[in-house]
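User: Can you recover a sequence for this backbone? Please restate the input before giving your answer.

Assistant: Of course. Working from this structure:
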């Protein structure tokens, strides 16, 4: 009967790749460290895999990857320490994580390149006419805090496929939606007052959004809408 230790080496590497979670809080309690303490056989397998990963990093990124000795020792700790603070795609030092997959260290440039179409929960509900329960149950999303606001980011192609299953033809749905919007009485445009946002930052509002991405602007819109609602409640129903 075949056992775990008698499997081919490539299957060992494939299995260990599913446990590759380089989060900083897992450095002291990572599955690789736990497996290496089970037996000498698993210790050598984990060490071999981590040495293999470090060698691949050295081949792909010769200037930023850690150096390997002729007979490497404790490769698992060196690999975990290195990947916990490096971008998964460009190997640059970063403290950021992907907005969709919050367990993957990823710089802002690589996050935008790997997942170019991202959409917030509020935008997805407004654009595709979906409910929050539908989105959170059928689509993957990344949850994180931005300016003390709990934000959920979705992959727009997944949201688009869900909308097609719910509404059918999206072109026809958007056409009917635009016709209904055209029949509505136009509302008076509301101008943003820069002094309203002094509670968030001392930087002028135009400079605040100058260097931010579209994803951050969507989050700012959610913050400002929440602030407007708070002001309206404080003024006993009067518009801000």
């Amino acid at each position: 009967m075949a056992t775990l230790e008698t499997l081919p080496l490539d299957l060992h590497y494939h299995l260990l790749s599913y446990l590759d979670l380089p989060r900083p809080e897992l450095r002291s309690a990572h599955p690789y460290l736990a497996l290496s303490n089970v037996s000498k056989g698993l210790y050598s397998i984990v060490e071999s895999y981590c040495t293999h990963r470090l060698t691949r990093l050295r081949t792909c990124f010769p200037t930023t990857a850690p150096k390997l000795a002729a007979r490497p020792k404790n490769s698992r700790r060196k690999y975990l320490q290195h990947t916990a603070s490096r971008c998964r795609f460009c190997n640059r030092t970063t403290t950021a994580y992907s907005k969709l997959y919050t367990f993957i260290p990823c710089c802002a440039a690589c996050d935008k390149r790997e997942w170019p179409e991202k959409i917030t929960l509020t935008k997805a509900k407004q654009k595709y006419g979906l409910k929050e329960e539908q989105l959170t149950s059928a689509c993957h999303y990344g949850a994180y805090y931005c300016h003390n606001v709990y934000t959920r980011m979705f992959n727009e192609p997944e949201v688009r496929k869900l909308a097609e299953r719910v509404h059918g033809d999206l072109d026809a749905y958007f056409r009917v939606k635009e016709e209904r919007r055209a029949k509505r009485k136009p509302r008076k445009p509301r101008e943003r007052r820069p002094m309203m946002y002094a509670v968030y930052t001392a930087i002028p509002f135009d400079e605040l959004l100058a260097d931010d991405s579209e994803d951050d602007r969507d989050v700012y819109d959610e913050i400002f809408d929440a602030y407007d609602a708070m002001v309206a409640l404080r003024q006993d129903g009067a518009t801000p």
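That completes the design. Confidence is low (pLDDT under 50) at residues 195-203.
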